[in-house]
Structures are given as C-alpha cells and as structure tokens.
Backbone:
C-alpha cells in the first residue's frame, strides 16, 4: 500500500487558475455589455442612480479584463466583481429602480458564484446575497394590506435555494471529476507511484521552496539490474511482480514527505526534500540491501533481483532539473558498469 505522500496529488493549481481565467474572460465581456445596455436603458427611463452604478460595473469589468491574465490576486478581483454586481442588484431592488426584475438577476448569483469562486467562498456569497435579496424584495413589495407576503417569501426562497443546490452539485461534481482525472494522469497504473509526466513539475516546486529555505534536497535514480533477462526467463507477469515489489520497498524506506516516481520501464526516481548527502546515502544503502534480500515467489519459484542507484544533490550537482537528473543518471550507469552488488559506493561518490 502506498504511504501517505503517495495519496496526494501533485499541486497543479495552475490548471484550476487557467480555468477560472478563461471563464472570467467570457463572463466579464457578457456582464460589461449587459451592464452598459441596462445603464443606457435606465438612463433613458430617468433611473439615474442605478444607471450610474451599472456604468461602474461596466468600468470594473473592463479594468478586470485588462488584469485577468496577469493578476496574482484573482480571488480578490473576482470577489470585488461579485460584490459590486450583487450590491447594485440589491440596491436596485431596495430603491425600486429594478422592481421585480432585480430578483431575476439575483437568481444568477448562485451559479456564477460557484463557477468563479468555488464551493466555499461562492457558498458564502450566495448565502449573503440570498438573505439580503429576499429580505429587500419582501420589504419593497409587501402584500396589499401591508403585511408580509408569505407566498412571495416561499416562492422566492424555494427558487433561490433550488438554483443554489443545483449549482453546488454541479461544481462539486466538476471538482471531484477534475481531481480524479488528475489522479489518473499522475499515477503509474501498475505500481501506484507518480509517473514521469509530473516529475519536473514536482521538482520545480521543491526547488522553489528549498531556494527560499536555503536547504538542499536529493534525487535518487534506481534501475533494476538485468530486468530484460527476468522478463525473458519468467515472463512479463514476473516482471510486473518485481516492479510492484520494488515500489513497495521504496515506499517502506521513505518518508511521507518524499516523492516516488516510476520514470521508465524498470527505472524509478525518488525526490528527498530537505535531505543532505549523508542521509540520502544511508537511505539508499538500506533500500539496496533490503531489495537484495528479497526473493518474491512466482509460480513457486523465487526470483532474486538487485538494483543500481545513482544519487545527485541539489544544488551541488546541478541547479536545474536536466543537470541534476543527468548527473544522477551518469552515476547510475557507472554503478551498473561496476556491478550491481558494488553499485552504491560508486553511485554516491560526489565530486
């Protein structure tokens, strides 16, 4: 079973942010054009205050469009947009400048909040706008005798809650599906380890955090010796068994904060955050020795196998991914040339 660290997905928030930015560009243009048209219409009908506020929405949207691709404060800008639009709608209902039309516009808030702000913040905004909107509408449109219009309260509340519920379910399912797709894309289906696709991504994140902390980390490359011979002699099922056994032992010997990858057919990589050379050497030696003692049984016949290991420390052996990986790879194949049983003293030799 994978350890805790292998149940995490790589942090790739860029994908989610890119999705929000694309969605925002479309919605901002729609809101800007609608607000401008409504501003002209209200100005024509001499509803000047609401017209000015709608003009402000248009200007905010245009300014946001200029910043949407570059800003690192996307949530703040989006929150400001929703507060501005929602505030104008509620003010229009309060001043009776929008009459009953205001509530129709308010019904757009649940889906837009969920799409742009996510489940938590979008839910908070939706709740606040819903309570304020329904309360203002009931105050502005009492029953004929001046009392609370219970039928209006029920209809408005049920309509708003229904849209909120549907929007919440849609966004929840979308987030869940994206998470599952990311997990599938990030994992090697046989071993359950992360695959080569995300190695550079994780390396970049670790390098940034370790640069800020001024601490080293280590990259290990492992390769099963004579793996083709194992497959030829015992079949590919035996080879798959060996790969799974190796991934399990790697999991046992590493920490929850470490990252494990299957980067090729029989080649694996381990990223060890906040790990100095000496500690990485000890871990590699324990792992190599443990694997050497393994003898998984396939069709009642034990299969012995060994691994060669190459080690490189950041930033001593390279400051970027290609340089560090190349150095570890060179030491890995130097170890293979010397023989699997003597691989570790060679692979950990640092210049």
Residues:
């Amino acid at each position: 079973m994978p350890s805790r660290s292998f149940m995490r997905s790589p942090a790739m928030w860029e994908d989610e942010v890119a999705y929000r930015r694309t969605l925002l560009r479309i919605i901002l243009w729609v809101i800007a054009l609608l607000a401008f048209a409504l501003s002209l219409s209200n100005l024509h009908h001499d509803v000047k205050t609401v017209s000015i506020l709608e003009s402000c929405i248009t200007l905010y949207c245009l300014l946001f469009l200029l910043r949407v691709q570059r800003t690192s404060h996307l949530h703040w800008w989006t929150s400001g947009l929703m507060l501005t639009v929602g505030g104008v709608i509620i003010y229009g209902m309060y001043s009776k400048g929008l009459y009953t039309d205001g509530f129709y516009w308010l019904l757009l808030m649940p889906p837009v909040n969920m799409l742009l702000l996510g489940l938590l913040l979008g839910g908070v905004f939706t709740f606040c706008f819903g309570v304020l909107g329904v309360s203002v509408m009931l105050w502005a449109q009492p029953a004929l005798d001046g009392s609370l219009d219970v039928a209006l309260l029920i209809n408005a509340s049920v309509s708003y809650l229904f849209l909120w519920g549907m929007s919440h379910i849609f966004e929840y399912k979308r987030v869940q599906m994206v998470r599952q797709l990311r997990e599938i894309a990030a994992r090697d289906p046989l071993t359950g380890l992360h695959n080569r696709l995300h190695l550079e991504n994780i390396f970049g994140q670790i390098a940034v955090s370790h640069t800020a902390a001024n601490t080293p980390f280590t990259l290990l490359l492992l390769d099963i010796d004579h793996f083709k011979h194992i497959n030829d002699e015992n079949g590919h099922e035996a080879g798959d068994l060996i790969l799974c056994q190796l991934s399990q032992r790697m999991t046992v010997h590493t920490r929850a904060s470490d990252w494990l990858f299957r980067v090729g057919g029989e080649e694996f990589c381990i990223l060890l955050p906040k790990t100095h050379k000496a500690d990485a050497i000890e871990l590699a030696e324990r792992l190599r020795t443990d694997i050497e003692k393994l003898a998984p049984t396939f069709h009642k016949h034990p299969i012995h196998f060994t691994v060669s290991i190459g080690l490189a420390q950041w930033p001593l052996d390279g400051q970027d991914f290609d340089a560090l990986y190349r150095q570890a790879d060179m030491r890995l194949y130097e170890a293979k040339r010397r023989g699997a049983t003597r691989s570790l003293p060679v692979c950990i030799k640092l210049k």
